[in-house]
Amino acid sequence: MAIGTIIAEHAAVGRSEVYLLTRRAVGGAIDAVTAVIEREGRGFDGVYRARGLDEVGVEELREIASEEAPLTVVPISTARDGVARAVLMSRIAQRDVPDWIFAEPLLEGLGARVDALSHAYVCCGCRAPLPPEQQIGRARARGEGPLVLSCPACRAGVTTHAPGAVYVAQAWVRLLAGDPRRALVLAARAEGQRCDPHLLDPIRGVAMSALSNPVQAVAHLRRATERAPGDAWLQAELVKALAASGYLASATAELDRLVHGKPTVKVPAEAIRHAIAEVSLAEPEVGAVRAEAMAELAAPV
Ligand SMILES: [Zn+2]
User: Which terminus of the chain faces fewer neighbouring Cβ atoms within 10 Å, N or C?
Assistant: First the structure.
């Protein structure tokens, strides 16, 4: 149905990246999609569509962009992949992704592109995928954290990766983007590359729990929390899984440990709230007491 010429352009403007896709119809009318993406890795700052010459404002946009960095023509697939990464980053950062972009002809095949992505975050310098450990760190922080990240090639010193590290990172990214099934598939691939199975326990535990297999989740999450005792997020996941499995005494004991522990990795307030809700469901009094300590413990990462 696309009649006319599609042009894709890109600019890095300050803290944002801009992708602009325009279609000029034979008669001269213009459609456009503009995606503004945070370079810090939190996904969309905005995504806009315009139909017809009047509301497009393409020339104005080009002028604004050119004050800091000119728009340069890029392959259409590069722009569409850029928007796809923004979808993934937005899901991880729990930001809204408008439904219309999946039906937008200028972003043809967007859903499939999102599924096919092998990474979420790219280097601010060379635009290569960031190394696996940075993918995990960024995803677990849900896009918060250091402002702009560079890859090892753009910094001094090069790191080598453990076996399967790329799949481990992909599994984390998908898990935190709300796709536990894909996370489990990627964890299995990582195992196929002989990665350290302990690295997969947190992924499998959280994914099993999300897929309503709390009993299986408990086994993984117990091992995961033993290896990362200060990780409050995993502890909260363990509490949830124990309570959902009916191990209430254990869930309460873990909740105590969570509330009185000194977390090295803090946990989003929402995760603790869920853990407490799970316990409260069966034991309202215990949950109410724990809720008091929650505000203090839960803090932005
Ligand atoms: Zn780089």
Answer: N
Considering only CA atoms, which of 178, 189, 259, 257 is closest in space to residue 225? 257
- 195 CA to middle of ligand 1, Å? 25
Q: Which domains does the chain have, with CATH numbers?
A: 5-116 (no CATH), 120-195 (no CATH), 212-301 (1.25.40)
Residues with Cβ within 8 Å of 164's Cβ and at least 6 positions away in sequence, in order, are 189, 190, 191, 192, 193, 194, 195, 199
Structure confidence by residue, pLDDT tens digits, 58-76: 666 666 666 667 788 999 9
Would the pLDDT of 56 be above 80?
no
124 CA to middle of ligand 1, Å? Answer: 6
pLDDT per position as a tens digit, 253-297: 888 888 787 776 666 666 666 666 666 665 555 544 454 444 444
H-helix or E-strand spanning residue 21: strand 16-24
Residue type, 53: L
